[in-house]
Each structure stands twice: as C-alpha cells, then as structure tokens.
Amino acid sequence: MQITRRQGGALAMASLLAARGVRAATPGVLVRSDSPPANLDPHQLFDVPMMGYALNAYDGLYRYENNPPELQPWLAEGHTASADGLEWEFRLRPEVRFHDGAPLTAEDVVYSFRRVLALGKAPASAFLGILKPENVTAPDARTVRFRLERAYGPFLAAIPIVAIVNSRLVRANEKDGDHGAAWLAGNEAGSGAYAFVPGSLTTLERLDMARFEGHFLGWSDNPSPVPRIAVRAAKETSTGVLGLLNGSIDWTDSYLPTDQVEQIQGSRVAQVAKDVSMRTFIIRMNNARAPFTSLNLRKAMAHAFNYDGFIQEILKGYADRNAGPIPNQLWGAPKDAPGYAYDLDKARHFLKLAQAEGFNPRQQIRIHIQSQLEQTNQAAQLFQSDLQSIGVNLRIVADTWANIVSATAKPETSPDMWIHWVSTYFVDPENWVGQMYDSRFHGTWKASSFYRNEKVDALLQRARGLVAQAERAPLYEEATRQVMADCADIWVYNTVELRGLARRLSGYRFCPAGGGAEMRWLQMKG
Amino acid sequence: MLVLRKFLRDIPAVIGAVIILFVVILALFGPWIAPYPEDASASHLLRRLKPPSAAYPFGTDNLGRDILSRVILGARGALKVALVVVGLAMAIGVPLGLLAGYERGVLAEAIMRVTDVFLALPQLILALALAQLLGPSVESAMLALTLTYWPFFTRIVHAETQRLRNALFIDALQGIGAGTPRILLLHILPNILSPIIVRATIGLGFTILVAAVLGFLGMGATPPDPDWGLAVAQSRTYLPNAWWFATFPGLAILIAVLGFNLLGDGLRDLVDPRLRRSR
Amino acid sequence: MAGFIARRVLLVLPSLLGLLVVTFLLIRTVPADPAVALAGDNATPEQIEAIRRQYGLDQPLLVQFGRYLAGVARLDFGASQFSGRPVAADIAQRLPATLELTFAALLIGAGLGIPLGVVAAMNHNRWPDFLLRILSVGGIAIAAFWLAIMLQLLFAMQLGWLPLRGQLSVGLTPPGGPTGFLLLDSLLHGRLDILGDALRHLVLPAVTLSVGGLATIARFTRAGVLDTLQKDFVLYERAVGFPRRRMVWIYVLRNSVVATVSQIGLLFGSLIAGAVVVEAIYDWPGIGSYTVQAILTADAKVMLAVTLLVGVIYAAVNILTDLALALIDPRIREGR
User: Fold this and answer.
1) How far A407 CA sits from the closest chain C CA (Å)?
2) What distance in Å separates residue C54's CA from the closest CA in chain B?
3) How far apart are the CA of B12 and the nearest CA of chain A, in angstroms?
4) Same domain for A56 and A131?
5) A193 in helix, strand or coil?
6) What topology in the membrane does the UniProt record assign (chain B) (predicted)?
C-alpha cells in the first residue's frame, strides 16, 4: 500500500516537473550530460568517458556491437591468423576517409599502434608485453601485419581498443618528440561518424560534435540521424535528472541511481534504457594479509552479505546476481559453480572455525569505499549492519579511487577490503578472472586480493597462450571454479546499465563494451 | 540581574538560547530521546526511503533508518565539531592577532605573513591532505578546519587592535608604564570582543556547514555516523524524489547554526560596555 | 600612498612562496600516485614505473620542487598529470567564469547586505532588526547545495523562468575573445542576445552563492553601525540635533565600514571556495569543479596551480582592501 502511494507521488511529481519540459529541448542538437574524456587523445586514456567520445570520433579495425557483444569487422574487412597465433594480418576496407578528407591507409594503422606503444598509457597495457613497435608493418596500403612476441589469446578481443588516427595530421603537430600528445589532447584526427568541433572544448565540461557526412558506413540506414551533439557534463545526479525531466538533457550517463528510474519513466519527455551489461560488482578481500589469510573467515564474510536484499531492495532489481568473477553471460564462466548465499547461520559457523584458528572478532576490519560512488557506501553499510549482528566489527573508510589504487600496489598497504566494479575493456575472460587472480598481476588494482594459487596461475597462463575459444573456455572455467572454492573475494552482481534518454530519440543500441555510447544509430525527432 | 533582564528583552537572542539549549539536551541525552537509537548503525531494507509518517515523522533514509532518530543522534557530533574547531581557532588566532596588531616591526610582519599563507591555503586541499595523512575522519576534518580558520581571528583582531593602538587611552596607559600583556589583555581585548564574538558565532555555523561540504567530498564524517552533513550529502542521489531525506538533516543544520548566531548577536550586545552604558 | 602599495605588493611574494612550499609538501604526503591511474587497468608495475620516470615522479622531492618553481617563474605551470592538458590554458579558460560568478555574488551580497545592516542597526531591538537578524542569520546557516536544488526546482522546473544549469544555452556559441569573460565579450561584440541569455543563466548560481556573503555583510554592517552610533562624536551630534538619518548615512556608515570592508575582502576568498559546490550543481564551467576533479585524481600540478591562483587573487584583494581601508580611515595610513 505504502509503495503504491509512493509510486503515485513520484508519478505526480514527475508529470508536474515535466509539464513545462518539452520547450527546453534544443532543435537539432542532442545534449549529453555524461562527462567528456579528460583529454581527447584516445591513445592516452581508456575509460568510460573516452569510449563515449572515441566510439564516435574514431574508428578501429574491429568493433564490438550488440548485446551480448559481437566482434565485427569495422575498418578491416577481415583478418587471418597463423596457427601458432603469432602472425596476424588485417585487410582494410577501401575508400575510408578521415574528417579532413585524407584517405585512411595501412600506414595510419601502423602509426596508431606504434604511437599507442610509444606513449605507454592506458590503452597500451593490453599490448606492451606481446607486441614490439617494429613488428607492426604495412606490406601494402590495405594490409597491416602484426607479429606477436608470444601467442596471446585475447589479442583480437583487444584490437578495438586502438583508435586509428590520421598519421599525417598528428605527425604535423608533433612537438619535441611527444608523438603529438599535447596537440591531440585538445584536437581530433579521426574518421568516425561524428567530428569534434574545433575550439568547443572546455576540459571535463563541454565539447561539441557534428555529424560527418563522409563516414565510411554511410548514412543510408538512418533516416533522421542526430545532426549535432553537445556534451555538457552534469556533475550532480539531481541536476542531470531534472534536466532530463525538463527536456534540456537528452542523454545521461548509463549509471542512473536505481531510485530515480521510476520518476523518469513516469515522465512524458524521457525514459530509461535498461540493459544487462558486463560490469561486475565486487567486494575485495586482501588474501595476503591477516585476517583474510583464513579461508574460513572469507567464507563467513561471503555468507554474511545480503545479496538479494541489496539487489532487490536497494537496487530495485536492476542488477543480476553474479556469483563468480566472470559475467554470467560470457563464455568461460562455469555454469555449475554454486557460489555463496546469504545465510547468517553458515556465516556464524565459519566464523567459529576462523576463531578456532585465531581470528579475534573484536579486531576491526576496515572496508574502503569510494566516497564519490554512493552505491559502494550503501553496500558497505548494509554489510556492516549484518556483520554487527554476528559479532564482526567492520569499519567503513571513505576513500578516493586515486588513493585506493595507489595503495593496492603492495599487500602491506592494500586495504583489508574495498569495493569496485570491473568493466568491459575487452570482451574476454582474461579481462576478469585472468587479470584478477593470476599472481603475475599482483600490484595492479585489479589483482588487489593478492590471491595466489599455483594451479590457477598455470591454468590462466595456458589459457592466455591459446587462440581457439573452444580450447580456452574449459581452462578459464576450471580456474574460476578454483577461485570460487577458495572464496578469494565476494562477487555480488552484474550491472544493469540505466541510461536516461529523451523520448525524441530512438534506435538506441547498447553494447557492454562502450555502454551504448555510439551515437550513429540514434534517430532524433525535432 | 540587570543583564539577565536586558537579555530577556532581546527576543532573537532568547530564541537562539532556547535553540542551543535544545541542541545541547539532544547532544547529551540523544540516545535516550531518539525513538530508534539502534538506527545509528542498523539498516532495514524493507522500509527504505519512506516518506514522513506517524511511525517515522521525518521519513526513512536510503537504508531504511529513521531520519528523526539520526537527526537527534547527530546533534552530539555537530556540537563537538563546532565547539572544538572554533575554540582551537580562537586560542591560536586571537593572541597572534593581538600581538601583531600591537607590536610593530619584524614580529608583527612575520605573524601577518604566516597568517596570509594559511588564509590563502584552499581549505579543501588542506583537508584532503590531512584526510590522507590521518585517515579520513571527523578528527582530520576538524584539524583541517582549525588550521584554515584561525587566520580569520588573527586578521580581524589585528585590524581592530591596530585601530585601537593609536587611541588616546592606550597612549595614556603606555605613559603610566603599563606592561604590554596588561594593556593587551585588560584594555584592548575587552574593547575588541564584539567583532571576535560575531566572528566566533559565525564560525560555529560556518564550521558545521564546511564540515558538511567535507562530508560531501568524502573527507569528513564516515558512514554510518548519523552526521547531518553526511546525510545531506548522501541524499543528493535521491533528489528531487526523496525530498525528506535532504530536508530534515538540512533543517537541523540550519536551526542549530541559527541558534548559535542569534545567541552570539545577543551576547555581543551584552558584553559591549558602551551599549550597556547607553541603553 | 604609492609606497604603501609597493610595500604591500613586495610583502606578498614571500607569502606566495610559503604557500607553494606548504601546498607542495601537503600534496606530496598524499599517497595517491597519478602514475597508477595513467597506466590504466591492466598495467604491470614496470609500466607504472616507466610512467613515473617519464613524469619525474621518481626524483627527490627537492628536485621536483625546484623544477616546478623554475617553471612557475617562466609562467609555465606544466601539464595536468591526469589529463595531459596544459594547466595554464585550462585555468585561463575557466577562471573568467568563476570570477564573473563571484563578482555577481559579491555585488548582490554588498548591494543588499549593507543597506539591510544599516536598517537593522537603526532599528536596534525593534522588529525590523529582529526580522533582519533572523533572516540574515538564516542565510548563513543554509546549506548551499540544498538551497541550489530548491531554487532549481522552483525557478527552472515549476515556473520555467530561468535555465536549470550551464553558462549559456546550447544553441548559442560564445563570441570568443578578447577578454574571456562571457558577459564582457558578448557586450563588446554587440551580441545582446548572448548577453541576455548569459545573464539569465547567471541569476540562480549568483543568488545561491551570494546568500552566505549577504548575511555576513549585513551582520558586520549592523555591528559596525551600532558601534559607531555609540561613539562620542555621534552622541554629541545627536545631542546638538543633527538630523539622524543624514548623520547615519554620512558619518556613521563611513566610520563603521572598516569591519565590513575587511570582511568583504575575506569573503571574496571564501566565495571562490564556495563556488566549488555551486559550480557543481549548476554545471558552471569554472575552476571550482576543476579543483574537485584534481583533488579526487590527486593531480598535483593542478592543485598547486589552483592554490597559487587563489593565493594571488587573495593577496590582490587584500591589498585592495587595505587600500580601501586606508582611504576610509586615515589613522591606518598614518600608523604605517
């Protein structure tokens, strides 16, 4: 009864707020309220805001489309790989042009990959260990050849990370051997469906993009594409939601708080797109340091988190329980591993066993949250409340991403527990179980549980060196089963991404890699 | 008695005093007054974000906790932060200001330059650094606030002292050989109390508000503290829908700060000797 | 007078150096390592170390600071460690927006606060005084972001009179140059449509930001006027029958603004700090939101530059304040 009344109230409020809405929309301009990337160079950054920009301004050899994601030829028409997985050859499409009219050739692809490796920033990390700059070559104008140092299973999956830049334009703006890094940070040299409007950038606040008529895919499939995009970052959720309701914002980021969904759905000018993504929510435990060296204590913790309560009540059901590290819908995730369930009796049982091993329940366990991300806070408080009832003392420490990530460099400084998501950077189990639980990655935030199991290391190492998915899948499944049996972390859910969209938009296409930020499929009325 | 009668005539000041008394009572006896004292840390998922009702007069928050209880329980923390920060800031700032305003030469210059450095130090950056050094907590926030707040007292005391230093009665005191500490404490300080009190009362409110901003940036109180500022900060995500979540802790801040300032105004009128003489 | 100013300007330099030293040390104590963020998700410790070398983060503290100072002396503030963008360019682009907002807020604060304070003092302990005191105190006590959201709900959503956020409507293009100040530039280019649109966008943020300052100014004016009203010369003038109203506006206000003016100087600094929250809610593209981002990403170059900037602005305002005080109250000038 109470819930219905509240829903009614929310709807009434939404319609009230939306009453004057439509007028605030700008004809012919789509207003995005997600953040633009910190700089515009796709070879210096690789994060969600960058994907939101680069998927539009640039093209790659391959691209992920649809949900679940499919790897599709994009600038390349196709590729061949040698049986040992060391030689890769990509054949480029003809007649692709950059925004300045220059043709896109194999030379640009070679330059782009070498530039990524030379800069050594975020997009390079997938390639640095396996690819030398001189081994990316262009036998002819439409062929690019890669020779890897050793076989790397996820190589193809990581290919979409590298945006192809206009080599002549960037070279012309190089300064002191910086590979044009300073210039490209505020300019654009791409071939994508939308072109950056020069001079429209205010760092982290706003930038404008205009539709590129000459995009290689053409526009015949889209009768009413968006002519112009204005990125105007909304810093506060409430401002973003209000903007959506009065029509002045057409498109928000895809992490709307679940409590806002109802109100937006009730509006006449906006709606929420809900898409199952590949982005797992995890509570980390520092396995290398007491008290979490104890398997029994880890199990007690895993049984004390109220998964259903968190997902159903706090997230309103906008998440899927994901009992292991790999997103459920991805290959390599074992279908038969049961995972852990909320059961305080079992938690007490394992706690007793842990105490017998010497765990002192009065000892304070510290969980670090990202204070900018309210959901990590809610999860920690829910956890704290349940742990208190079984006599475990959990202390919440507010922290920032930059600090936590620096602290995870060593097991001594890494927090007892912390909370984060693992997003799709490339669609491969390596992105999750591989980089999270292989001990070779200790010192990176993704491996911050400092889990060590030689059997798992060996399995992951073998899986990485193979190319065929059929051979790799069972290895990842076995490794995952073992990690879950060892209860390395507390795996909570797989995200449902929630993006606010104006009702004048249609044709929204979501893909877990990039979160649906590719604008060329959208149609806009007015 | 005369003082009390005069004070009682000042209606805003009386309102302020009543508010402060109320806040102090809440701070002292909160856990016995709050209807659901366990909601300081418990969570109740089935009654999240319920609007105000008979059972929960201020509604419930994002974890189903009674907001009225948490507002009551939060009084203690708010009072502690405000009093400690302003007390420490005055203890540092007032003596330095007196000295710098009265003395001439290198010492005065040095004090004022150091004051300028701290005054110009952006509060947020300092608070962040301290939060990292000591771990984010109320204590590190209090230290950061103190370190950035004392210069305000120094500045204002300095300006006022400088103004008074040339006054005839100080000349006279110097003439009859009164010592510097005596002049500063017994003659200058009472004469500049009024701006200090005004500044301190503003400071009490200001401190609570800035502590709220620090909570907003994740550098002040840590969950699940029933901190008012933290509650308002957390409620942002649920606006405009769950208006009660932001409004009641916000009102608590407003009313407490209002009380301090009204009371401070009234006190100012009382301690000012010239006002006492004339009315 | 010129000597007075020159002396003040010279004295500022060591303060600014001190400010940089303190800030540099504070930032260096923060464990957050920008190299980790730059290296990205899958980076190995070796890759992170390479980036640290590239940015000189592996050098001794003194060397790093020396390099930084040498850069600052050439007005080169380096590039943001987080974004790779030049810090000076980013700040130059954003500072005008913050200054416009702050000036507007100060204008509203002083324009309303001083008369309100005088009225309250003249009606000491009568109902206009009570009312103004409660209202002005309430102004200080209100949390800026709560007020901001309420104003948005009322004026942008319900009434639809004012825009919800931003500095300019999406359909309009800023005129560009020569000053970087949107209001000034649109005036210089004769673009009254842009000027009008920008003013409409300015109203809500400026009002939100002004509320605390308005209340402070009103209180100090009231206190100052009350003080002066008790001075012997005023009592004397009153005794000889000088018209009360004229006396207040001519003599009393002039003598009581000392405290108020030094408050306005202090307020400017706190308004710039207060802009952090207001800019975030109204999506105002100023340095406030830039600073928050820098803090969250431990971007030392940006934090240092912003600290220095606030310090310079603060020092400039201080000198101007002292100047104003010296003009108002000759005793201060002669004391020097």
Assistant:
1) 7
2) 24
3) 35
4) yes
5) coil
6) Multi-pass membrane protein
Which chains have 3+ CB pairs within 8 A of C?
A: A, B
Mutate to test the interface with C, among B10, B19, B121 (most CBs of C within 10 A): B121
- Taking contacts as CB-CB distances below 8 angstroms, the residues of chain C near B274 are 227, 230
The CATH number of the domain holding residue A511 is 3.40.190.10
* A400 vs B: CB within 8 A: yes
In a domain, A383, yes or no: yes
* Residue C285 contacts A, CB cutoff 8 Å: yes
Q: Regarding beta strands A417-422 and A364-370, do their DSSP bridges make them parallel or antiparallel, or are they unpaired?
A: parallel
pLDDT at A115 over 90: yes
* Residue A384 in contact with partner chain B when CB distance is under 8 A: yes
Are both C72 and C94 inside the same structural domain? no
pTM above 0.90, yes or no: no
Is residue C239, in this structure, part of any structural domain at all?
yes
What's the total number of domains in chain A? 2
Best residue in B119, B197, B214, B253 for a mutation probing chain C (most C CBs within 10 Å)? B119
Question: With an 8 Å Cβ cutoff, are A380 and B42 in contact?
Answer: no
Whether the CB of C154 is below 8 Å from some CB of chain A: the reply is: no
CATH of domain B17-30+62-274: 1.10.3720.10
Interface test with A, best of B241, B243, B244, B247 (most A CBs within 10 A): B241
Assess if residue C8 is contained within a domain: no
A258 domain residue, yes or no: no
pLDDT in tens, chain C (336 residues): 677 778 777 777 787 788 788 778 777 766 667 777 677 666 777 777 888 887 777 888 788 888 888 888 888 888 887 777 889 888 888 999 999 999 899 899 888 888 888 888 888 778 888 888 777 777 767 777 778 888 988 899 888 899 999 999 988 888 877 888 999 899 899 888 999 999 999 999 999 999 878 888 887 888 778 777 777 666 777 777 777 777 767 666 776 666 677 777 767 767 776 787 889 889 999 988 888 778 777 788 888 888 888 778 877 877 777 777 777 766 655 544
Residue A384 contacts residue A424 (beta carbons within 8 Å): no
Q: Does one domain contain both C186 and C70?
A: no
User: Cβ contacts (< 8 Å) between B243 and chain A: which residues?
Assistant: none
Pair C174, C301 in one domain:
yes
What is the predicted pLDDT for the residue at A466?
92
Inter-residue contact A39 to A45 (CB < 8 Å):
yes
How would you classify the pairing of strands A228-232 and A270-285?
Answer: unpaired
- The span from the CA of C213 to the CA of C269, in Å, is 11
Q: Which of A495-509, B130-144, C81-95 has the highest mean pLDDT?
A: A495-509
Q: Measure CA A373 to chain center.
A: 15
Does the distance separating the beta carbons of B48 and A6 come in below 8 Å? no
Residue type, C324: A
Q: Does A84 touch chain B (CB under 8 A)?
A: no
Helix boundaries (H) for chain B: 2-9, 11-33, 67-102, 106-120, 123-134, 138-165, 168-175, 180-182, 189-191, 193-216, 228-235, 243-271, 273-278
* Distance of residue C289 Cα from the nearest chain B Cα, in angstroms: 12
- At residue B52, the 3 state secondary structure works out as coil
Q: Are residues C44 and C136 in the same domain?
A: no
DSSP states of C318-333:
HHHHHHHHHHH-HHHH
More confident residue, A131 or B5: A131
pLDDT 10s digits, A148-191: 999 999 999 999 999 999 999 999 999 988 999 989 999 999 99
Q: Is A377 on the interface with B (CB under 8 A)?
A: yes
Flag if A259 and B236 touch (Cβ within 8 Å).
Answer: no
**How much is the ipTM here?**
0.83
Do C315 and C97 touch, CB atoms closer than 8 A? no
Judging contacts by C-beta atoms under 8 Å, the chain B residues touching residue A380 are: 223
Tokens 């009093």, residue located: B83
Domain that holds residue A433: 277-496
Smallest Cβ distance to B237: which of A9, A374, A382? A374
> Domain range for residue C187?
89-333
Which of C313, C299, C277 has the alpha carbon at shortest distance from C103?
C313
Distance from the C149 Cα atom to the nearest Cα atom in chain A, whole angstroms: 8
Count of the separate structural domains present in chain C: 2
